[in-house]
Design brief:
The protein is α/β, with parallel strands linked by helices. Helix content is 42%, strand content 17%. The chain has one domain: Rossmann fold (3-Layer(aba) Sandwich). It is built from 6 helices and 9 strands; from the N terminus they run E-H-E-H-E-H-E-H-E-H-E-E-E-H-E.
């Protein structure tokens, strides 16, 4: 167990992050999960049976001190760090014309600054293990949508992934951008509910993510765009 790989997932108390945590734990990984809501983290741990190889860490993914503390706590608890997953993110309703600018700031900080902070904090540990960085982007980071500020944040994540890869590949670190289409998660709760049409499950999307994480040493899967069949854009 002390040699089993270690993953740190931000925003992992529900949805895609929680599904990835569950699948990695089932495969014998040790997993640390962060989230802003302590109660949700406690419920996740309870749902998973409170295993010894799960560490839950409350904190804001867009706060540098909290991110550095999460990385330090993970390495202290498990002795190493093999994978980080920048999963924390959200969207708010409205466009550039009619949206609420008060909400844009937090969204930009969480969706764009958050992954950058995680990369910076985790690099020393990942260099030791020649580990992997996974950034959760979106189809919205490849397709232009009129006035969509959330989409702009995910375009930034698309660029961040390749910029990061070019910086760290010589250190033996892999970088994967996974860009989901519509996934049935609490992401939609503040957007008026689930969209019409087919949806991926969180487990299906997490399965693609875990597949990339489990690639053999030396194999770097860089971009995965995963849509439900029937989603046209």
């Amino acid at each position: 167990m002390t040699d089993s790989p270690v993953a740190l997932i931000t925003g992992g108390s529900t949805g895609i992050g929680a599904a990835a945590a569950r699948q990695l734990l089932d495969q014998g990984h040790r997993v640390a999960v962060t989230g802003r809501n302590r109660d949700r983290l406690d419920r996740l741990a309870e749902d998973l049976g409170s295993p010894d190889n799960l560490l839950t860490i409350p904190g804001d993914a867009a706060d540098n001190d909290a991110v550095e503390a999460a990385v330090a706590s993970t390495v202290k608890e498990f002795g190493r760090l093999d994978t980080v997953v920048a999963n924390a993110g959200f969207a708010i309703d409205g466009t550039l014309a009619d949206g609420d600018p008060a909400g844009w700031r937090e969204m930009v900080l969480t969706n764009v600054l958050g992954p950058a902070l995680l990369i910076r904090a985790a690099l020393p540990a990942l260099k030791e293990t020649r580990g992997r960085i996974v950034l959760v982007g979106s189809v919205a980071g490849f397709v232009n949508t009129p006035g969509n500020v959330y989409g702009a944040t995910k375009w930034a994540v698309t660029g961040l992934a390749e910029n990061t890869r070019r910086m760290v590949t010589a250190d033996g670190i892999g970088v994967t951008l996974i860009a989901p289409g519509r996934v049935e998660t609490p992401f939609w709760d503040d957007l008026g509910g689930l969209p019409e049409g087919g949806l991926l499950t969180a487990d299906q999307l997490a399965g693609a993510m875990v597949w990339a994480i489990n690639q053999p040493s030396g194999v770097d899967v860089n971009t995965l765009v995963v849509r439900p069949i029937g989603q046209p854009v």
